[in-house]
Automatic annotation (TrEMBL), chain A:
It comes from the Bacteria. Its main location: membrane. This is Energy-coupling factor transport system permease protein. The keyword Phosphoprotein does not apply. Keywords: Membrane, Transmembrane, Transmembrane helix. The keyword Transmembrane applies.
From TrEMBL, chain B:
It is found in: Cell membrane. Belongs to the ABC transporter superfamily. Residues 2-235 form the ABC transporter domain. InterPro entries: AAA+_ATPase, ABC_transporter-like_ATP-bd, ABC_transporter-like_CS, ABC_transpr_CbiO/EcfA_su, ECF_ABC_transporter_ATP-bd, P-loop_NTPase. It holds the Pfam family ABC_tran. Its EC number is 3.6.3.-. This is Energy-coupling factor transport system ATP-binding protein.
Length: 228, 269
């Protein structure tokens, strides 16, 4: 487990609730000033997390937000709508990225099951999706390299390019299916369907810091929406 | 001749994998690349293939500098077979899978058909040309990966741990195929941890250790110095170990060992 995940100051549930609160707030308002303040809030939280992967992700998301705004402007969307939707996408994605980058998957599952009372099977599904994202990224690199060694060179024409990328997607889909089958068998063999009471190694109760941050976060969201 | 001249490479600052290495690889031979885990065996092949680019030095194939070329250019001369064949299989038939590289590299239909057929016959997959690649056994999938690299008609084939996960029969079939391809003039660069394969099949061995080429020479020279072999993080092959135990001349293959033992018996009789 990475050091920043092991020693995260806030519980996974706190970060999940913060992500939900901020997401509701950004869906509530279309005011650009309010959205700017919420963007600033998320950036401050992300920087405070002191996680390099999170900072890298922040840069990537900012880039996508700019692209989103540009595309909307190109298709004649009003300026406020284009910038507003870019802000909204950025804020929601960053809030979820903070949760994922600074909490272990075990802790997220434990929070969803024990504190949010989500059935274990559903919580586990979410965990598995999060768990496999880095693996899939690594695998897509391996597949791209394997195909490059056979002359794969995506065309410049966007339509042709999409067809070319099927050479990357297909092996990944085949591998994902095989992997999910292996995983299902391995889980069953280790008692996944057992209906007894489950215990969690990563279970963590909320502390005063969690409650304080939740209240402050909620207040900032409410004040920001009400003020503009 | 494939030449690496003063090549240095690092994945990150202060984490050099190769520091000013020089090596010449004969494109007619089977050259094994060996070394401990993490010494850079696969990195070396990726540099050759253009998947990585050296920070200093250059790689040349005969007189052509290839270290600044992308993989799809290098693929015309060098084929790469990855350890995991599932990373590349996407087509709906074995034939289509093998025909991918020639198509990408711009061969005419006539050339394509010729090389694909030849590659599938060589690898023993012609009878399965209409099968779906995903339904093949691991050994067949590995041979299909080789066939799809061969179909591009390369001069050199890089095999990265080709026998890993294969059963005894598949392993033998694959190694025989490798010998046959080499006898037909194809150069082979073999990345392996298996000292028995290395001793039996390689003409030359390149051992990587401490960011350098720690050894480049024949397997016989290497294994005759047990101390050096161990220092390089390698093990003696079984045949060499038995030769030493029996205090007979060094044998690299079971056949050679058998001949020396029977010759010794006849001499004693």
């Amino acid at each position: 487990m990475p050091e920043n995940k092991k020693n995260a100051a806030l519980a996974a549930l706190t970060k999940l609730l913060m992500a939900i609160t901020v997401s509701i707030a950004v869906l509530w308002t279309n005011n650009l000033s309010a959205l700017s303040i919420l963007t600033g809030l998320e950036i401050i939280i992300a920087l405070a997390a002191r996680s390099k992967p999170l900072w890298k992700g922040l840069g990537g998301l900012a880039f996508f937000a700019v692209i989103l705004a540009v595309i909307q402007l190109l298709f004649s969307a009003p300026f406020s709508v284009a910038i507003g939707s870019a802000f909204k996408m950025f804020i929601m994605a960053v809030s979820l990225l903070i949760l994922v980058a600074t909490s272990s998957t075990q802790e997220i599952t434990a929070s969803l099951v024990k504190q949010c009372h989500l059935p274990y099977e559903y919580a586990f599904m979410i965990t598995v999706v999060l768990r496999f994202v880095p693996d899939l990224l690594k695998e897509s690199k391996a597949v791209r390299e394997a195909q490059a060694c056979r002359g794969f060179h995506p065309a410049k024409n966007p339509l042709r390019r999409i067809i070319d990328y099927m050479m990357i997607i297909k092996p990944m889909v085949f591998k994902a299916i095989a992997r999910s089958e292996n995983m299902a068998i391995s889980l069953e063999l280790r008692g996944f369907s057992h209906k007894g009471k489950r215990t969690f190694l990563a279970s963590r109760k909320l502390a005063w810091l969690d409650y304080s941050v939740l209240v402050i976060n909620a207040l900032i969201c409410i004040i920001t929406i009400k003020s503009f | 001749m494939l030449k690496l001249e003063n090549v240095s490479f690092a994945y990150a600052i202060n984490n050099k994998i190769f520091d000013d290495i020089n090596i010449e690889i004969d494109t007619q031979e089977i050259v094994a690349i060996a070394g401990r885990n993490g010494t850079g065996k696969t990195t070396l092949t990726r540099l050759i293939m253009g998947l990585l680019h050296p920070q200093a030095g250059r790689i040349k194939l005969d007189e052509m500098v290839i270290s600044d070329k992308p993989p799809y250019i290098i693929a015309k001369n060098i084929g790469y077979v990855f350890q995991n064949p599932d990373h590349q299989l996407f087509a709906s038939t074995v034939y289509e899978e093998a025909a991918y590289a020639p198509k990408q590299l711009g061969m005419t239909e006539e050339e394509r058909d010729k090389y694909v057929k030849q590659a599938l016959i060589n690898t023993g997959l012609w009878d399965k040309k209409d099968f779906m690649p995903q339904t093949l056994s691991l050994g067949d999938k590995q041979r299909l990966s080789i066939a799809s690299a061969l179909a591009a008609n390369p001069r050199i084939l890089i095999l990265d741990e080709p026998t890993s996960g294969q059963d005894c029969r598949e392993r033998t079939v694959l190694l025989r195929l490798m010998r046959k391809l080499n006898n037909n003039g194809l150069g082979i660069i073999l990345v392996t941890h298996d000292m028995d394969i290395l001793a039996e099949h390689a003409h030359k061995v390149v051992v990587i250790a401490d960011k350098q080429i720690a050894y480049a020479g024949t397997p016989r020279e290497l294994f005759s110095d047990e101390k050096k072999t161990i220092e390089l993080g390698l093990e003696l092959p079984e045949t060499v170990r038995i030769s030493k135990e029996m205090e007979i001349e060094l044998s690299l293959t079971p056949q050679e060992l058998y001949e020396k033992i029977t010759a010794g018996r006849k001499k004693n009789a």
